[in-house]
Amino acid sequence: MEQVKKIGQLCRQHYEKLILVFVLLLLAGAVWVLYGASQEESEKIQQMTEGYTKKAGSPIKPVNLLPFEAAMKTATNRPSLNYSGKHNLFSPVKWQQNRGGGGGVIKVQSGTEVGPSAMRIVSTSPLQLTVAFGRAALSGAEVSGYHILVTNELAVAARQRFITQFVGTGATNSQVFILSEVKGPLEAPTEMIAQLKDYNNEKISFAPQKHYVRTVGFEAELKYPVSGKVYSKLRKDSSLDIDGETYKVVDIAASKVVLSDDSNGKRHIIEQMVAP
Predict the structure, then answer these.
(1) pLDDT band at 63 (very low <50, low <70, confident <90, very high)
(2) CATH number attached to the domain at 118-124+218-270
(3) How far is CA 161 from the centre of its chain?
(4) d(CA 104, CA 172)
């Protein structure tokens, strides 16, 4: 009995250790059972694949990544922005009301659609200086001088366009020319030699049946297609209004008209004719 009591007392003193040993034994048993079960499952899995053969077939094609690579290249190499070309970000297009030809608006892109650059030549006409023999002036039986008819279409004042000039040989107080020589009979000369007071003192010749004719300028007629307005009888130094801006004619040739902007002096050459 004493021995049993000692064992019971020993168990009471170390019951925690006994419980721990018991639990460890249970865990060891559980591990052993699970290991045996896993071995049985491995054998079953191996038995499931027995008797099957590998089926022949074409291999899987690799994925085509070219579209994705192209997209990545485009995304990493963005095109540069060009601000100097034809765009409307910093240079907006101007739309101007067309007052002629049915109204509407005009898209102004280059600047030549409106203003002096859009002007067209309708026609140009030469302006001439003509010197013609009139008649001899008699003082008794002697010839004292000559009446000469001068037509200057370039003159602005009407009284200067048609002049009957009386000249004597060597006289210097004439308006247009100085008569230097008379050939043939004085009352009916065959040729008269004179020197113009203008046009670089050009030496000229005329006779009773042969006039002296010189082109001294041009007169132009312009049309502004934007408004349909026609500018007639334009001469050098004439002024005209284009879309509220004032321009001056500085030169006219047979197929060219040059305009000058009064605000900045910029010149515009018009050479295009009105379409037939």
Answers:
(1) confident
(2) 2.30.30
(3) 45
(4) 63
